[in-house]
Write a structure and sequence with these properties.
Length: 474
């Protein structure tokens, strides 16, 4: 039986909250700290605040017993053996990560340290941050023997966060003292030793007792770079396939076939080769910019990352051009939009390509009816309803009497739509899909004009030629 450890998690966002309930799930006692009283009260009452699979059940199981929520960081610091910092590191105006929240938390922790603590940085931070945390704590009068600072980056994805935490590809621990390495080893032992996967009711995923995740011990700086380099590499993979998809469009090749063909090479792998309207979310755009900025500061030429960003930005402009060429003129056109979140199965709209596309289309004079299974409330805060924009309660309502339907987020719900019903609902059966959710042949057979990314446009079986304007059908 693994040892139960007393853990504090500072920050109750995606990473902090998921880490808190998952540490409880593997047997530890957790105090989750947030300085937002309303958030803490909501979490105490069982409201997860974010849309995430498995989170409601874990929160209900552990809240107010193995996981407590509080605003009192001093008390949490005194009680915990390990304190995980999981507060936001937003992008500053210069592209660097803004570390002021991390610094504030480190100073507050320092004021309450009365026995040996391991302070673990889980937020995504640039190399050398752990060194700054250590100095900040020392400057607040804490003796070096009373604490260690560790880097333990998190690799979970929104939408599958709980499963990713409990079934990670790897656990990275950057630490340089035996005490810190031992404590972090003990915290993750239920996963790395395989014990969790035999537990009744364990959440399923790719790991099991005979193939548990590996824990990789590294230097602190290597761990910090691993996190930034991983996200930058994934973003690069997406921009690469997006650039390839543009070439496929120009040559009438099919990017799905090309992605399959290159992904079968085990050195490349099939994942993260889905073309679309560009990556978004709270991580990739900010982390690519921060990593580029870190390289700049050390005099390293990493222009490759600027190109990754350029391709990503141009992908949205290309999509807008596609909408224009399908509809001829945009002013006054009524469009249905499926998807507001930055990807499927989440309600997060931070840096969502869909929100940016909607802004561009509104600026072109289109009117839009948008639908998302979970992100409507958040979207309404940044894009309020008005003369040009309204929100629908179902995908079919968004498609009603529109000149074309745009698919901007890869929700499973959209893959499962009743396409013949959709066809009847649209004024013109034109679907412009920025996520390649449907099979072009099947769409043509159903009578749609179907425009997607990196694949030849499919025309209704009875229609030929490439003009797809509503005017042609009238
Ligand atoms: C990403 C990483 O995948 C996680 O490993 C990491 O822990 C996390 O950032 C973080 O740093 O916290 P996440 O932002 O939740 O996770 O989302 P992803 O699933 O990686 O998708 C990011 C964006 O790329 C989305 O807009 C998605 O639609 C897009 N994407 C993804 C593509 O356009 N094509 C793909 O093949 C894959």
């Amino acid at each position: 039986m693994s040892e139960s450890i007393s853990i504090a998690v500072v920050g109750s966002g995606y990473v902090g909250l998921v880490a808190a309930v998952c540490f409880a799930e593997i047997g530890h006692t957790v105090i989750c700290v947030d300085n937002d009283e309303r958030k803490v009260a909501a979490l105490q009452g069982g409201d997860t605040l974010i849309h995430e699979n498995h989170l409601p059940e874990l929160l209900n199981r552990y809240r107010n017993n193995r996981v407590r929520f509080t605003t009192d960081l001093a008390e949490a610091t005194r009680e915990a053996q390990a304190i995980f910092i999981a507060v936001g590191t937003p992008q500053s105006e210069t592209g660097d990560a803004d570390l002021s929240y991390v610094e504030a938390v480190a100073c507050e922790i320092a004021r309450s340290i009365d026995s040996y603590k391991v302070i673990v940085e889980k937020s995504t931070v640039p190399v050398y941050t752990n060194e700054w945390i250590r100095r900040a704590i020392e400057r607040n009068g804490v003796e070096q023997r009373l604490f260690d600072v560790v880097s333990n980056p998190e690799f979970l994805r929104e939408g599958t966060a709980v499963e990713d935490f409990l079934h990670p590809d790897r656990i990275v621990v950057g630490a340089d003292t035996p005490e810190a390495i031992k404590l972090l080893g003990a915290i993750y032992e239920p996963l790395t030793g395989g014990e969790y996967y035999n537990q009744t009711g364990a959440i399923g995923g790719c790991c099991n007792a005979s193939t548990p995740p590996v824990l990789l011990n590294t230097s602190i700086k290597s761990a910090e770079i691993i996190k930034h380099a991983s996200n930058a590499f994934l973003a690069l993979k997406i921009s690469f396939i997006n650039a390839v998809s543009n070439l496929c469009e120009a040559t009438e090749a099919n990017v799905e076939q090309v992605a399959k063909g290159i992904g079968l090479d085990s050195r490349i792998g099939p994942k993260f080769l889905r073309p679309g309207i560009g990556y978004g979310g709270s991580c990739f755009p900010k982390d690519v910019a921060a990593f580029r900025s870190v390289a700049d500061q050390f005099g390293i030429n990493f222009n490759l990352l600027s190109e990754v960003e350029n391709i990503n930005a141009s992908q949205k402009r290309r999509f807008l051009a596609k909408v224009r060429s399908a509809l001829w003129t945009l002013r006054g056109k009524k469009l249905g939009v499926l998807g507001l979140a930055f990807k499927g199965e989440t309600d997060d709209i931070r840096d969502s390509p869909s929100i940016e596309m909607i802004r561009m289309l509104l600026a072109e004079g289109c009117s839009i009816v948008a639908y998302d299974p979970a992100a409507k409330e958040r979207a309404m805060e940044v894009l309020p309803e008005g003369k040009q924009l309204s929100y629908a309660d179902t995908a079919y309502d968004a498609a009603k009497d529109v000149d074309a339907l745009l698919v901007l987020t890869d929700w499973t719900e959209f893959v499962e739509l009743d396409l013949p019903r959709l066809h009847k609902t649209l004024r013109y059966p034109i679907v412009i899909d920025g996520r390649n959710l449907y099979d072009p042949g099947a769409m043509a057979a159903l009578g749609f004009t179907y425009i997607s990314v990196g694949r030849p446009t499919a025309h209704p079986a009875r229609e030929s030629g490439s003009l797809t304007t509503p005017g042609r059908r009238a």
